[in-house]
Amino acid sequence: MKKHQDQGGLKPEYASILDGFYRGLAPSGLSPDYRAETEVYRRRSRLASAGRLYESLMSASGVAAGPRVGYFCNLVPEELIRACGAVPVRLCELDHACARLGEEVLPGDACPMIKSICGSAAAGRYRDLDLLVIPAACDGKAKLSELLAPVRPVYLLDLPRSSEYLRNADAWTGRYQDFFDFLKERFRSRAGRSELTAECRRANLRTQLFRRLYHFRAGHPGLINHFDYFTLVSLSFRLEPEAWLDLAGEILAEAVGRAEGLKFDGRRILLAGSPIIFPAYKVLDILYEFNCEAVADSLCSGYGHLYDPVEIDEETETGIIRALALKYLAASLCPCFMGLNKLLDLLVDTTAEYRLDGVIYHDLRLCQVFDMQTVAIRQVLKEKRIPFLSIKTDLGREDTGQLKTRIEAFLEMLG
Amino acid sequence: MKRILINAGILFLLCLSAAGASAAERLEISFTYPSFKGDFYASGLVAFPPGAVGDENQLKVVNAAGLEVATNVKVRETWFDGSLLSADITFAANSSRPDRYHLVYGGDTLRAKRLGETAVLPVSAFSVGGAARTVETMDMPVGQINVRVDRSPDIRYYWHLVPLTALLFLTVIRSRRTSR
Amino acid sequence: MKPRRRITLSRRIIQLACLILLVYGGYLFKGRLAGQEANVGEPPGTGGSLFPDLKAPKGAMSTTQFAPGSILWPSGATPVLENYPPTLVCRFNPKGGLFKACIVHFFSENFTWQTHLKYLLPHLTLFVLLCFLLGRFWCGWVCPIGSLGDLLSWLRRRMNVPVRRFPAGFRNALVFSSYGLLGATLGISTFIGLPNYSRFQCYWFLPYCQICPARLVCPVFGLIKPGWKDFTNGVSATFTLLAWLVLGLFVAAFYWGRRVWCHLCPVGLVNSWFNRGAGLELHKKAVKCNKCGYCADACPMGLTAMYEADTDRKYNQNGCIMCLRCLEVCPKDGCLSCRFFGRRVLESRY
């Protein structure tokens, strides 16, 4: 139907020229191997069931068959994709090797995640997907919709930048409705509200289990450590809800069984800021070294991906799509949207509710918006007497020593 | 269902009947004397509780000296047992000799003097019983008497003003503390 | 099932129970009470009931005088209880219903009859007490017309018709019109009660009731044909046409929107004056809010104050019908709470 959206705005002629360039960059492909890393994190875990967790990180089991739709950011409603019979795969990644390849395409001072995605795309890792859905969340992502057009057909989900419900709810619903219509046509699906309701229910089951796990971690720090937690969340990027529930349920059950008499003498902090996705666990490694546990977070690769449920108020098709828009857009903590109030509220509230020791703001270098709101967060948390540390880093391991010094000083200051 | 709205006098009589109908009742008749000097008829509609006045001869009007005055009684309505419900009572009075009259009924009261009402005289309406007591309504379905009477004083209603004002006051106070 | 879901479930159960009670209460309880009434009369002067029954004085117009088929028929059968709850209870129920009538009927009828104030006081006290305790709770949980409207909304949702969301200006205009309706009703009722104008009573009696959708709907519940048309003269023809128009508006308002009618209802308007001071309070803990807008989206009255709120306070709104839907859909634990005079009764949980 909408050809220009399908092609991401690049003419076939230009697309094929760009495609030729990509194929020249990595003719043999690029498949980084992280078996060593998973082995390290598996040994660090205090749970026996974590073995299965890290195994599934490396294997492709639990992913449903069917046309696969790759998407970026947690602003794309996977329920819509599932309802149309396709399999949503969230492609957000932070891979140092891919990012270095991405620097051949993009300038060096682009966002590491964009570089990583671009590198992966150039290396041909997305060629088995049927569709790429890119939300115009930030400038980088918007531009990706053109740069990735040669690789696979791209749908650009253009969203208003203000996350104010009153002004945008209708616009969001319209965009999502367009997207749903597009998907239905593309995958020849006759999905309606019964499919949507079923998918929302599946997603909500996942949210319920995630919330239990999230609260459990705050009360019993260290048992499900932050490596397990972030790995579990990033697995939900591609696993079917049932497979994920199975995995997470097993981990939570084991942890609850061993919660009795557990002592944790380290620090409990809230991790805010840029996403953390396997294998970019550098900050988590340093925290682990100083016996500090990130028990809560506000990341789009953690809390933001699974915490919010879909609340269907009107069980009409439009009503469900609207509810999805509210879940994904109104509640979004992405700094590209005007949601600093929500983030500050969340930091203040979570720190008080779980009596956390402080907030560490993970600021991925070169993402302007994350960086820009640091000053506001620092000043507000200072006023509220919540210890705050902002660390600026990127995917490389070169600055590990310097980060260690800063984090150690911060943790000592907590007293 | 027949519905009759009765006047204040009925209630007073009903109350008295509830207290005990066997003794003779004595009610003051009140009216204003006309400005002219001479004879006139005092006339009024009086209602009686059930069973109090068996027929039109079981009531009489007496003057201040206790002497019976000739009366004319026209029965308007009767209760289901045949006793008088209401009757028009007329007697002759003279404005040059003001007197105080009482209506006596019940017990063994028997009327001796009858007024033929032959002369054409001006009429002054009278009422019995002094201050009116409130009455709501009286329903008379066929075959049974369905009377709902309110004998309670005004305070029974007016005390509601206290909680009513208090609640309204509280509502206003609490509203002011609530943001719009 | 999540625990919060039970709010709407219990609301539906209470609505259904109240619909049955208020509409069929006359059928259910009449027999017993009629037996009692026969005993009351025998010795006269057993004393009035707690709520004096207000009846038309001699010569005044009363709903009992209308013949079958007339526009203010059926009515007249005495209700089971002689008082006026703060919700829409229709006088135009066959068999009289459970309560006497709604508060607008109460005012218009007694203003016409010029009933002494003291007889109104007990009724008013009960009304104000209930409103003070629960505010406009009645609209959301008890009102039979509201329940019927919710049924229409449910039908719409079943048929996959998306809800129309009306702008705040339109809703405010409806509230403004409801002030007009109430004012006109009370004005006309008082006017026709004046001694010199009682001749207007036969066509202008209970002016709001004549166009109220409940007058046409409630008799249907009792399987009786309502007095649906009267073209004897200009006034009654106008009222008939207005009644049809209002019924159409009512159905449309509930079918395409949710509770749009409730902005226009004068009974709800009188209740709404108590909302902000009511004992039933809605609180928000602003720091827990994630601004998802579900509360504003789910509000059948289209209120957004709860969503917009940035401080921890009580957020009772005049338009709120206390359906607690916002509290039910709120995905943040402990963000919204319902309190009774400051004591926490319910709070949002996921």
From TrEMBL, chain A:
GO molecular function terms attached to this record: benzoyl-CoA reductase activity; iron-sulfur cluster binding; metal ion binding
Keyword Protein transport: no
Claim: Calcium is one of the keywords in the record: no
Record-linked InterPro entries: FldB/FldC_alpha/beta
Enzyme Commission designation: 1.3.7.8
Keywords tagged on the record: Iron, Iron-sulfur, Metal-binding, Oxidoreductase
Sequence similarity: Belongs to the FldB/FldC dehydratase alpha/beta subunit family.
PANTHER family noted in UniProt: 2-HYDROXYGLUTARYL-COA DEHYDRATASE, D-COMPONENT-RELATED, SUBUNIT OF OXYGEN-SENSITIVE 2-HYDROXYISOCAPROYL-COA DEHYDRATASE
Protein name: Benzoyl-CoA reductase subunit C
TrEMBL record, chain C:
Protein's recorded name: Putative electron transport protein YccM
Keyword field: 4Fe-4S, Electron transport, Iron, Iron-sulfur, Membrane, Metal-binding, Transmembrane, Transmembrane helix, Transport
Residue ranges annotated for the 4Fe-4S ferredoxin-type domain, each copy included: 280-309, 311-341
Coiled-coil regions, chain positions: none
An annotated GO cellular component: plasma membrane
Organism domain of life: Bacteria
Source organism: candidate division TA06 bacterium ADurb.Bin417
Transmembrane residue ranges: 12-29, 126-152, 173-192, 236-256
GO molecular function, one term: 4 iron, 4 sulfur cluster binding
